[in-house]
Amino acid sequence: MPSEHSLDTGLTLGDVDEDGAILEAIERVQGDTRTGFLRKATIGGATLLGALALPGTGKTQSAKDVDILNYALSLEYLQAAFYTEAEQVRALRGKARRAVEVVGAVERAHVKAFRDALGAAAIARPTFNFRGVTENQREFLKTAVAFEDLAVAAYKGQAPRLVSDALLAVAVSIHSVEARHAAWMRYLFNITPAANAFDEPLSRQEVTRIVASTNFVTKSGRTERKGTPRFTG
Amino acid sequence: MLIVALFAARFTSSSTEAAEQEGAQLPAPSLPAFVIPKPEGLAGEGTASRWTTVARPVSVREAADPDAAVIASLSRQTPEHTTNVVLVEGSAVDDERRLWIAVRVPALPRNVTGWVPRNALGANSFVRTRLVVDLERLSATLLRDGRRVFDADIGVGTRAFPTPAGEFYIRSKLRSLSPFYGPLAFGTSARSAVLTDWPDGGFIGVHGTDRPELLPGRVSHGCIRMRNDDIVELGRLMPVGTPVTIR
Fold first, then answer.
1. What is the pTM assigned to this prediction?
2. Is A229 close to B221, i.e. CB distance below 8 A?
3. Is residue A15, in this structure, part of any structural domain at all?
4. In this predicted model, what pLDDT tens digit does every residue of B79-120 receive, in sequence order?
5. Domain range spanning residue B242?
6. A191-210 pLDDT, tens per residue?
7. Is B118 in the same domain as B207?
8. Is B235 part of the contact surface with chain A (CB cutoff 8 Å)?
9. Phi, psi (5° rounding) for residue A59?
10. What is the number of structural domains in chain B?
């Protein structure tokens, strides 16, 4: 069992929260202006966990569960956006196209469930630029396998850390669904769906590094502002 | 036969008792803290349009080929200092397996479709709305998933400064600081073919007005004017990236 300190990644919130989505969630929960301080807080560190405590509970354990749920939500956001875009772009063919419709709907259901459960504590949806991967069947399937394997390993890494048995029941339920998705995508990509006798978990640090290496998380464009128009009138 | 039946009954009875005893020692499964809702398919499929941001300045080419003629250029920002966006119309892979995207470009006298490398563009977004401007009936209609959700009387360009007809899109949304434009103004990719020396390129807007008594009518320099209540309502319903048909 990893120690409490193994959640520390060395990354700061500012490193991975370019768009400010996570800080926005904290501000909504806390209603204060400690963002400058929090931006330097280490991911998974005690400061951030405390900051994510639900208002009024004051329980560190609850805050830890909230943090883990938000971590799961961030992965679900990534997967839901990936499959949804692939479905909307309509570049995939055959069985892959059908799989995208089914898996995308499930990942969106996961997102909705986590957002509903977290309420105001839910982190905001990031912006993703999949850089054309959703428009190429082979690249899409290769990435889908990687994402599903990642999700399975991430849930496996965090489920034992949940304080609440009721949340553990949810996590285990989702974990097995992600494992089915992983097998499905592996089958479509023509690799063995279940080759190992034992699956390793991945730490949050490893998952964060892998997600960051894709460069899929991006800044959203600013298409609205206040100003004096210069249209022809 | 009787022996077999008695054995079976005894075995069943004893194994049930054993299971009950064993089960009594195991905790019941934990109830989940929340339930995952039933998966639902995407809404509005078939009517969605795709748009994306311009991630870096890029030349727009006549074909999906780095040696094809340049027909326009795209910058990262609009003249209104918002992120520049383009409507996506297709994609293709070149001989070097590079992905190219067909985009609608705000050229004169009408928007044109040209090709840019995928790596010059940002995140994809999708909208399910379409704005239809009728220059004869002087009306604007917003459709969502093909169904009418908004209607308004409008003012359009005079005979000297006509509103251009064609296929365009919404590329910015400004909370207006000028009473002339009302409280809200959308920037479109349409441009006046007459006011070519207008500051910032003579782009056509969809906006409110400080002269509502002139509507409906042919009263503008090409922009689409509507009453302030209407533009506020449209602002609630119409996202950036919405395709615009002016006919």
1. 0.82
2. no
3. no
4. 999 999 999 999 999 999 999 999 999 988 789 999 999 999
5. 129-246
6. 999 989 999 999 999 999 99
7. no
8. no
9. -100, 125
10. 2
In chain B, residues with a C-beta closer than 8 Å to the C-beta of A220 are 123
Given CB atoms, is B3 within the 8 Å cutoff of chain A? no
First and final CA of chain B: distance in angstroms? 90
Residues of A in contact with B100 (CB under 8 A): none
Interface of A with B in 40-59 (CB under 8 A): none
CB contact under 8 A, A223 and B83: yes
Question: In this structure, are strands B85-93 and B99-105 parallel, antiparallel, or unpaired?
Answer: antiparallel
CB contacts < 8 A, A to B, total 166
**Would B146 be classed as within a structural domain?**
yes
Give pLDDT tens digits for B38-69.
999 998 777 899 999 999 999 999 999 999 99
Active site residue B167: no
Which of A104, A130, A227 lies at the smallest CB-CB distance from B174? A227
Q: Which residue has the higher pLDDT, B165 or A37?
A: B165
- Specify the CATH number for the domain of residue A111: 1.20.1260.10
- Domain extent, residue A212, equals 59-218
Together in a domain, B93 and B138: no
The contacts of residue B32 (CB under 8 Å, 6+ apart) are A166, A167, A169, A170, A173
Shortest CA gap A141–chain B (Å): 17
Taking alpha carbons only, the member of B57, B176, B210, B211 closest to residue A231 is B176
B123 with B190, same domain? no
Give the CATH number of the domain where residue B205 resides: 2.40.440.10
CATH of the domain at B111: 2.30.30.40
- Give residue B9's pLDDT band: very low, low, confident or very high (50, 70, 90): low
